[in-house]
Amino acid sequence: MKNGTWLNEPTSWSLQDNGYLEMVTDQGTDFWQETLYGFKRDNGHFLGVTTADAFTAQLRIRGEYTKLYDQAGIMVRVDETRWVKAGVELSDGRAMLSSVLTNGQSDWATSPYENDHRDFWMRATVARGVLRLQVSADGKLWPLVRLAPFPVATSYLVGPMACTPQRSGLSVGFSDFSLGAPLGKELHDLS
């Protein structure tokens, strides 16, 4: 993450020598494009690292979610209208595994997250126009979150993301970031 570039740098953040990033969200931050609500937001916090045209990236996320729509996780981005964010989001009174895939307009997919939502891992693989998202409670077993078409590009930005649409002050820590060639594993290989 040391080579990352901020999109909407938060007022409060630090990056330690060991790669541990801590940030505190600013007021009313989010990434969203039109669907249902009709508004466009592109003011969430994202530290993007440039990738090749195909890659696997993963990171560990630790946070204390307390208010509706508090969220943190990983983002893969081409531009303002083509991106995905995935992680934990507080919704309907509980921590949900959430992913928003945007190609002009945003969709939103959620499911209850049954493990410790205050400490989890996310992995994103992009290759040949396909996005594969995985989650892990321990950094070892990686169940599938989402498999979807994704825009083909010569490079992407990938890295930690956090937003608080209805407040400020979510403190989130990110660590164990890695970026490399696509894993190329079979769909049901959860390693």
Automatic annotation (TrEMBL):
Protein name (database record): DUF1349 domain-containing protein
Organism ancestry: Bacteria, Pseudomonadati, Pseudomonadota, Alphaproteobacteria, Acetobacterales
Gene3D superfamilies to which the protein is assigned, alphabetical: 2.60.120.200
Species of origin: Plastoroseomonas hellenica
Origin: domain of life: Bacteria
